[in-house]
Amino acid sequence: MRRRAFITLVGGAAAWPLAARAEPADRMRRIGVLMPYANDNSEARERLAAFLQELKQLGWNVGHNLQIDYRWNTGDPDFGRKAATELVTLSPDVILATATTAVTALQPATRTVPIVFVQVADPVSAGFVASLSRPGGNMTGFTNVEYSIGAKWLELLKEIAPHVTRVGVIREPTVTASIGQFGAIQSVARSFEVELTPLGGGDAREIENGVTEFAHGSNCGLISVATPLTINHRSLIISLAAQHRLPATYPYRFCVAEGGLISYGPDTIDPYKRAAGYVDRILKGEKPADLPVQAPTKNELVINVKTAKVLGLIIPPAVLARADEVIE
Question: How many domains does the chain have?
């Protein structure tokens, strides 16, 4: 073989892996999606739309080179375990899992299928990864809120409603993230001179009964922590807060857009876009073990001044000045 021809052949061979990484393979790849929300949850749908749009930008098109299998929570108490088993049985190339409950269900189902998670508060303590910088197993992803943010929710509640001395905290007592957030609120409750009452637990009826009974007292306020329970039942919580004239803080912007008073927390759409990037890299050969877990890049303060007026509250100018968005 002539030297020039040999160099051309070798050079072309060296470029093959680069070309393979540059464009998704033509063969059909499979993604499983595990969502601990009802399939008509508008916020969950919006997040998935952002995920799919980002995948499309990266060259992955459903029906062409990509197939997606969804599992939504239909109210079955054994949903997580059943759905996780079903998805793993389908032999996906990677699974997108939302929230700690979904990842917990997937963990015993597979140690080999790559998993990209979102909305997980503490993946190290939960045993999903060895460390944030080097996950080390078949999982990686994006955290949502740090436990310490709970203290900020109480601080904001007292800033906008200084008369509040009793605070009901709507949480899930068996969810790690919920326990951590409630603990952070407890750690500063005395300094803000408030008495805490845990509310909610398992379903809408418990939330409604708990808030209704709690609201019979005076100088009351609410904090809704960041868990699938509060997201699934956010309309009920917002309605109860309005009905009983309770100032309330929420973890996400969409709660305030739907009528809640004030929120402080990360953008819920951005992690799904970033998750698409990780899914793309895994489909092209990278391993979850080598992709570091990423934290939110920014928390947003959002205020609904219309709700404040209905409650008879005057938002302090200093708080308004710090707001990333004011909803009229």
Answer: 2
Contact 174, 255 (CB under 8 A): no
Q: Do 194 and 306 belong to one domain?
A: yes
Q: What pLDDT shows up at residue 42?
A: 86
Residue-number span of the structural domain to which 247 is assigned? 149-267+299-327
Quick one: tokens of 204?
């809408």
Phi, psi of 198 (to 5 degrees): -70, 135
35-44, 82-91, 127-136, range with the lowest pLDDT: 35-44
Q: Between 204-214 and 234-243, two packed helices, what is the crossing angle to 10 degrees? A: 20
Q: Environment class of residue 242 by beta-carbon count within 10 Å: exposed (0-12), middle (13-18) or buried (19+)?
A: middle
Report the 10 Å Cβ neighbour count for 87. 27
Enumerate the β-bridge partners of residue 98.
Answer: 118
Q: Quick one: tokens of 172?
A: 């899930």
Q: Which residues contact 275 (CB under 8 A, 6 or more apart)?
A: 51, 96, 116, 118, 141, 142
131, 204: one domain: no
Q: Give the separation between CA 166 and CA 109, rounded to whole angstroms.
A: 43
Average pLDDT value for the chain: 90
CATH number, position 229: 3.40.50.2300
136 and 283 in a single domain? The answer is yes
In a shared domain, residues 156 and 176? yes
- For residue 174, the model assigns a pLDDT of 82
Contact between 84 and 106 under an 8 Å Cβ cutoff? The reply is yes
pLDDT digits (tens, 9 = 90+) for 80-122: 899 999 999 999 999 999 988 899 999 999 999 999 999 998 8
The pLDDT value recorded for residue 65 is: 96
Q: Which one is predicted more confidently, 292 or 179? A: 292
Same domain, 196 and 102: no
Q: In this structure, are 218 and 275 located in the same domain?
A: no
Could you list the beta-strand ranges (E) of 156-309: 166-170, 195-199, 220-224, 248-250, 262-266, 299-304
User: Do 48 and 61 sit in the same domain of this protein?
Assistant: yes
Domain match, 241 and 263 both: yes
Q: Cα separation of 210 and 228, whole Å?
A: 18
